[in-house]
Specification:
Elements: H1 2-26
Length: 27
């Protein structure tokens, strides 16, 4: 389903954003 695919993409983006914040904390 389209909604499920969009939800998966949103989860990946949220995960990347969280990792980006973690990385910036250490830089």
């Amino acid at each position: 389903m389209e909604a499920e695919r969009q939800n998966a993409i949103a989860e990946k983006l949220a995960d990347l954003a969280a990792r980006g914040r973690e990385l910036r904390r250490y830089l």
